[in-house]
Amino acid sequence: MGTVLMVGTRKGLWVGTSDDAREEWEFTGPHMDMEEVYSCLVDTRGDVPVLLAGASSSWLGPQVRRSVDLGRTWQESPSGAVRFPEGYDASVERVWQLAAGSRPGEVWAGTEPGAVWRSVDGGETFALEEGLWNHPHRPQWGAGYGGQAFHTILPHPGDAGSVTVAISTGGVYQTADGGKSWEPRNQGIRAEFLPEGEQYPEFGQCVHKVARHPARPERLFLQNHGGVYRSENHGASWDSIAAGLPADFGFPVVVHPHEPDTVYLFPLNAGEGRYPTDGRARVWRSRDAGESWEELGAGLPDWFYVGVMRDAMCTDQHPSAGVYVGARNGAVWASPDSGATWRQVVANLPDVMVVRAATI
């Protein structure tokens, strides 16, 4: 078995490959030089892995590109793939999320402004999810510090009609009928930036990321702008699991590929100081679904005053699961042993926005 690692930055994409030991890496790039790459996907459902990247060019606008040879060549999608139909007073600025669907050939995309799109041809063309775009809440969604974007898309692994999405700042929404209708799923999530007495609204939360394990699709983990939560009922309600963490602010949340109870976070100080507590890079892991937390730092730097973005942490699918963290200083660390030990695999890249890894 081998491993592929996509590293999207604000100035292009780098593609790394390694064997199953994941000790030595070879990187190619920059692909899409000087373009912002905010989303990546390694689609392993076919005969060969397909790499997809959502890139934004100051000249050409947003584009979804595809590669079937691990990045040696890239194909542009027709008309950029993600475009509003004629007559819409909106234009796509960035593709913030790419996610494999539960049907063959299905790929989902989340964009700025806040919209969700679906492809049925492997990411070559995308259609707007009209039911969500026309939701009565949409005019009231705000924009997070990084913009208004659907950054989380979680197709249900066993129910093709069910998809959970999240937007900053709007919160979590879910469809049970294939996208015809969407309902907010934010009960129990605090919006700390709202006035006292109004901090638990139906929608409007600044959700940073949501994750789940396919073996436990009813359980969701959520990193909020202040707050870490778990839902055991598919998002109908949320409970705090922040006790024991050094801070409840952060961006990514990642679930172990083989252990539904194991979840990873990268906590940061509050929004005013977006670097780890005490300036030490640390991943925090729970093996009991958030009931308790442990600090992981063997091999990570003790002098670290940069952040890790919402999609800049991921896992692979090896039996000894790999965990990957990319930072805004252009470095990426990898752990081949589920977080016990870490080593830097690449450095001095531009600002890392997304990392995606897969076993091939």
Question: Outline, from the CA principal axes?
Answer: globular
Task: Provide the β-strand percentage band.
Answer: 35-45%
Number of domains: 1
The tally of beta strands, per DSSP, is 28
Q: Which series of helices and strands comes N to C? A: EEEEEEEEEEEHEEEEEEEEEEEEEEEEE
- Counting helices, strands and paired strands, the structural category is mainly beta
The helical percent reads under 10%
Strand order of the largest sheet: 3-2-1-28
Main sheet, how many strands, which sense, barrel? 4 strands, antiparallel
| Low-confidence blocks of residues | none
Q: Tell me the radius of gyration.
A: 19 Å
Q: What is the CATH class name?
A: Mainly Beta
Quick check: average pLDDT?
Answer: 95
CATH level-4 homologous superfamily: YVTN repeat-like/Quinoprotein amine dehydrogenase
List descriptors.
single chain, globular, 1 helix, Methylamine Dehydrogenase, Chain H, 41% strand, 28 strands, 360 residues
Describe it.
With 360 residues, the chain is mainly β. The chain is built from 1 helix and 28 strands. A hairpin with a 2-residue loop joins strand 9 (107-112) and strand 10.
Helix-strand layout with pairing:
Elements: E1 2-9, E2 12-19, E3 26-31, E4 36-43, E5 50-57, E6 61-67, E7 75-76, E8 94-100, E9 107-112, E10 115-119, E11 127-128, H1 130-133, E12 149-155, E13 163-168, E14 171-175, E15 183-184, E16 207-211, E17 220-224, E18 228-231, E19 239-240, E20 249-255, E21 263-268, E22 283-286, E23 294-296, E24 313-315, E25 323-326, E26 332-335, E27 343-346, E28 352-359
